[in-house]
Amino acid sequence: MSRNLLLFAGVGLLFVLTGVFQSWNLALSILLMGLLSSIMALGVNIQWGYAGLFNTGIMGFTALGGLAVVLVSARPVPEGWAAGGSGIVAGLVIGAVSIAVAVQVWKRMPKGMGRNLLVPAILIAGFMVYRWVFDPAVTAVEANNPASAGNIGGLGLPSLLAWPVGGLLAAAAAWAIGKTALGLRSDYLAIATLGVAEIIVAVLKNEDWLARGVKNIIELPRPWPVPYETDLQKSAEFIDWATRWGFDPQGASMIVVKLLYVLLFGLVLLAVIWFSERALHSPWGRMMRAIRDNEVAASAMGKNVTKRHLQIFIIGSAVVGIAGAMMTSMEGQLVPGTYNPLRFTFLIWVMVIVGGSGNNWGSVLGGLLIGWLWLIVESLGPALMGQLTSMMAEGTLKAHLIDAAPHMRLLTLGVILLVVLRFSPRGLMPEK
Amino acid sequence: MDFLNALVVFLNFVFVPGLAYGAQLALGALGVTLIYGILRFSNFAHGDTMAFGTMVTIYATWGLQAAGITFGILPTALLGLPVGIAVTALLVLATDWLVYKFYRKKKAVPTILVMVSLGVMFVMNGIVRLFIGVEEQNFADGERFFISAGDFKAMTGLTEGLAIKTTQGVTVVTALIVVAWLFWFLQKTRTGKSMRAFSDNEDLALLSGINPDRVVQVTWIIAAALATIAGVLYGLDKSFKPFTYFQLLLPIFAAAIVGGLGNPIGAIAGGFVIAFSEVTVTYAWKKVLTYVLPESIMPDSLVQLMTTDYKFAVSFSILILVLLFMPTGLFKGKSV
């Protein structure tokens, strides 16, 4: 136990040192990303550590969480919705219904030629009707003031509400993927989730009616109770308070906002840990670990392995979706172009493995430590490379090395992952 | 005449690009499937191995060009290819010795190996970005077209032209040579036979005195060669960008799984299935239809099932369909 406390103290010290030597603003920004990554890592740990499921689509679930924020809390666009909102919804419903009908027909009809012809016919007809309803609606929505809107808009509800919705969206996607890819070879889930993540981000980038695509959605509202810095700076009460304690009002407002976020995210993190620890130590958690350790034995004992896997895959993905929604509502904008698998999928994996798979606190430690490394290398790397190359003559090689410094972190992370997997596969905080 | 024009449009925009892309995917999928058959894990680093091999080839090409050596009408990169293959083979052999060997001796479960290959992917990706950067590189030179659209029109008198890019021709011919050589190697040589034996039944192969280390090394060298060739051909045909190569992982895996993981013939078939589906689904068919349909029933839209941005969705859907209805693939791979 003391070892674990020491590890956390060490990571805490890293953040304090960043605050002292660089700036508290930077230290808090890194801490916020670290907390968000920790929640995502917890979601992945639920899947990998409890059940041995290998999900490489974390980026997709994060992005779905971000989409939830847009749908729930973005400014409504009544003209856009009136132009084609109902058509879009109808089109999507038709698409879903035709898939569901095809699945049911496939299940209920006897094998044979009739089924082999009818199912594709239903799907093709469904697709044509879907396009026939959906396309004009999309064109109408996107034609509405494309420079500033061109989408169906959000509901204008509070941002906090979007977090559970993000979880639900991610859970729904996880259900669809799990239904098809679970129960087959373990690698197939990895490949299928990798593909789904790419498709989700492609949808966000290209479907302008949904979240304006690469034109981005900005000015998403902040979650309660976080104020805007500019409002704080205008408030006489706040300026009074800041000057009394000897702070510069502008800097203090930024710190206060970040501290509130830290509090908010910390609460969510603790709630997720509490729930997953309770679940892990319940009969359900013991069953999960039994399945992970020996699927054959568990299924011989009458446990439905595929069903339990589906369940845990959905829960873990929902946690990732919540974290994704939290991230987007903190950033106040949805920029689909920033969703990069290396940052949002594989970095999270490094956190889980380094922290210790199967241990919730390990995931938090990994999230904070690797999150710190990732962001600090971004700001320190070029400076360090500048120092290293200061002796070299000016020239293309020097310029190239300085340009390339940010890419060092991929290399570093890969080496860290390989070294941990090889020499300490149970991570910094091994599962008990 | 209209029918011929429609056919030429189809060949020009669907068949020829699909054929070249299919050959590139098939070579990539062959590498994945060989590794799967012999080493028994899905190698996530394959896309970045392709990127690495292509990068080395690009440097070799630049060196040759600087020395004033070119390959006539063919791209100089073909001359740089052996260098790329050699360096990539050394890299993957070193990776195997440093990283994978430990897990093989321990008989680790496939998921751990997949995760290890993720680590390798990170490192290779980092190396590529460190050396050549993330920008797009065009390294195709030589003659641009075997047949240009204008020449074709003049030759045949049709209103539509058929252009065959040199890179497309080179891709198909190279792929044919490589595949023919690979099958000869696997079927006729002693090493190839021992590889197939090892893939079919590892224990039996070990009992009959096959040296596993040698089989593994040869597999890695062939996989490196296939990855480099596939990467260079793709780069010549389109352009080289590290992130695109990472994204190629999905269609390549889809091709290997559709054909049946572990089955080389399946990998080739899968490559073409994926490539042609991607091209046909994302192509706007209006231009073909203008020649074959009467004016009255001509649709207004572009007759495009999906925009090209969703080409991943195509390979993904095929992957899901195959997983649902025939999990061992078209050609009975070994996975369940």
TrEMBL record, chain A:
GO terms for molecular function: branched-chain amino acid transmembrane transporter activity. This is Branched-chain amino acid ABC transporter permease. It comes from the Bacteria. It comes from Paragemmobacter straminiformis. InterPro entries: ABC_transp_permease, LivM-like. It holds the Pfam family BPD_transp_2. The chain crosses the membrane at residues 28-46, 53-74, 80-105, 117-134, 154-176, 188-204, 255-276, 310-330, 342-358, 365-384, 404-423. Keywords: Cell membrane, Membrane, Transmembrane, Transmembrane helix. The keyword Membrane applies. It is a multi-pass membrane protein. It is found in: Cell membrane. One of its GO terms (cellular component) is plasma membrane.
UniProtKB/TrEMBL annotation, chain B:
Its main location: membrane. InterPro entries: ABC_transp_permease (IPR001851), BCAA_transport_permease (IPR052157). GO terms for biological process: D-alanine transmembrane transport; L-alanine transport; L-isoleucine import across plasma membrane. The keyword Transmembrane applies. It holds the Pfam family BPD_transp_2. It is found in: Cell membrane. GO terms for cellular component: plasma membrane. It comes from the Bacteria. Belongs to the binding-protein-dependent transport system permease family. LivHM subfamily. This is Branched-chain amino acid ABC transporter permease. It comes from Paragemmobacter straminiformis.
